Request: fold
Amino acid sequence: MKILALPKILIVLLLMVSCLFAVTSVSARQEGKLQGSHGDSSVMSKSCRACHKGMNMSVNGEEGTCLACHGDSTARAGMIEAGFLKDTGNLNLTDIASELSKPYNHPVLTIRGVHRQRERLPEDVVNAARHAECVDCHEVHVVEKDNPYRGLKGRRVGNFITDIAEEYELCYRCHSESANLPGNFTNKHEEFKTTNPSFHPVEGEGKNTFVISLKDPYVAQKQKPKDISQISCNDCHGSDDPNGPKGPHGSNYPGLLVLSYQMDDERSESAQAYALCYKCHDRVSILSNESFQYHSLHIEGQLGGQNGTSCFTCHDAHGSSQYPYLIKFNEDVVSKNADGKLKYEAQGYSARHGACYLNCHGVEHNPLKY
Ligand code: HEC
Ligand code: HEC
Ligand code: HEC
Ligand code: HEC
Ligand code: HEC
Ligand code: HEC
Ligand code: HEC
Reply:
């Protein structure tokens, strides 16, 4: 990694020299030879110069470099015209720019001049500006279709920084122990910790061994090869277009979600309203109260499905550090009861009984048991 500390002029020299012969080293940049998706010289015939244009070796890590090929077809045609990209007939580049322009997105297009080369994430400076550039999530010198996190550095353990192998480790670079996490955003590593009373099974299999509403092929514990007992951030976060590019670039659904999820109180229940949850949890099972005997009452309300409340009022989609069953109350809707209590008591997985201490829509739960 010593090369990274060299002044710019030396890097320019390296780039020129490296076109002539490859140095024996581990890094693609040092070898002067691209690996992975950008390494096919029949498509990327000008190699390094596709991004490091002219003598200006220093690219600033902003998205413009990338969107020339990964943006709209007009931009791409320009790159083909200029000879940086060759259309061999099976070129299949998607429009990441239009994804990033959707209402819920990673702020790649809107934030400028914050990313620093060789920065260390998670951020440890409290007032550092938040950002996410393409190069924070993709190491373009080595990225591969089947190994999309290759070359990216993950969590810091003391002075040691681990390589990223799982998607969630990439996300934790900015959504876990970042000192500059905005107030309304939470530490996802805390929420998904497998020592929590409950969590969606992202880092490991879930705590609850029998989740009755799960739809095939989802299961609580893997027994058969086709069973799926662990899920990823990308099962919930990503493009709203099922045929759109993979990755959490942008979505038309709030929360940058792949499917719709109604989070407000006093709304109608429908397959569409909670489509995200119903992707894996059977709607009929939930609404026929197979687990919580008052699910339907709360979700559909009493006026024929018109004034129900969201799953979000009682459940956290990531995890709960306090209770089983992903219970975490939305305190915009739920408040303390007359005794000042706001809590949930469960009786164990097979019991299907519990008690709530709270006030909701003026209804005292002190406690209400099921
Ligand atoms: C697909 C676009 C792309 C290609 C192709 C590419 N690079 Fe890069 N390179 C970048 C970007 C973007 C950065 C800045 C990364 C950052 O800011 O984190 C960078 C950074 C670097 C750096 C670090 C610069 C510094 O000041 O620390 C070196 C060295 C480098 N590239 C060498 C190469 C070499 C050699 C090649 C050809 C073998 C190459 N790159 C091909 C996009 C590219
Ligand atoms: C000169 C055109 C060009 C430029 C500039 C370019 N790319 Fe690419 N990129 C490609 C091509 C071609 C592929 C291979 C696509 C394929 O195999 O389907 C690719 C593949 C990728 C992939 C892997 C996707 C996959 O599934 O294989 C990622 C991620 C990526 N590019 C990100 C970037 C980023 C980030 C930048 C800017 C730093 C960038 N690219 C700049 C042409 C380009
Ligand atoms: C380089 C930093 C970075 C990385 C890595 C990162 N994010 Fe983000 N993410 C951000 C920033 C910045 C925002 C804007 C809000 C904020 O400051 O937290 C954001 C916002 C979000 C939002 C809310 C979007 C909205 O419109 O409501 C979601 C969801 C999200 N990220 C998911 C992910 C997932 C999933 C991953 C891993 C695949 C990930 N992020 C990786 C920086 C990052
Ligand atoms: C991609 C599939 C998937 C999606 C989408 C999904 N879940 Fe789950 N969910 C699972 C799996 C798998 C488990 C089993 C975890 C376990 O065994 O503890 C589970 C378990 C649960 C549990 C029980 C957890 C426990 O510890 O008892 C609740 C509650 C839950 N999900 C609610 C939701 C809600 C609310 C949504 C929508 C925001 C949702 N799920 C979306 C796959 C999914
Ligand atoms: C089962 C579906 C599901 C999974 C899996 C999931 N999320 Fe979420 N996520 C949601 C929903 C629903 C929301 C919006 C409600 C909320 O804020 O809790 C959300 C909101 C967010 C937000 C914005 C709000 C905040 O608190 O920061 C971020 C960032 C985020 N998720 C990151 C992640 C990361 C990182 C992962 C994987 C480690 C992940 N999510 C896995 C469903 C999911
Ligand atoms: C917050 C992190 C993040 C940011 C910022 C980001 N990406 Fe991605 N991107 C991902 C993830 C995660 C994937 C999915 C990788 C996988 O599972 O194959 C992805 C996938 C892709 C793919 C492959 C799409 C496909 O369908 O195979 C391309 C190309 C790509 N990104 C380019 C870009 C470009 C260009 C930018 C900036 C303009 C960018 N990304 C910004 C996280 C990010
Ligand atoms: C009023 C609070 C409340 C609301 C609203 C709510 N739940 Fe639940 N849910 C619970 C409680 C309490 C349990 C635990 C029941 C038990 O003791 O087994 C539970 C259990 C679950 C379970 C685990 C057992 C099973 O059925 O597989 C899932 C999954 C679940 N809920 C999904 C949802 C979804 C999806 C929604 C929205 C469509 C929703 N819940 C709305 C309170 C609620």
Remarks:
- The CA atoms of residues 274 and 295 lie 13 Å apart.
- Confidence is low (pLDDT under 50) at residues 1-6, 16-26.
- The chain has two domains: 34-175, 233-370.
- The pocket of heme C (ligand 1) is lined by residues 4, 11, 15, 18, 29, 32-34, 38, 47-48, 50-52, 58-59, 61, 65, 117, 135, 140-141 (CB under 6 Å).
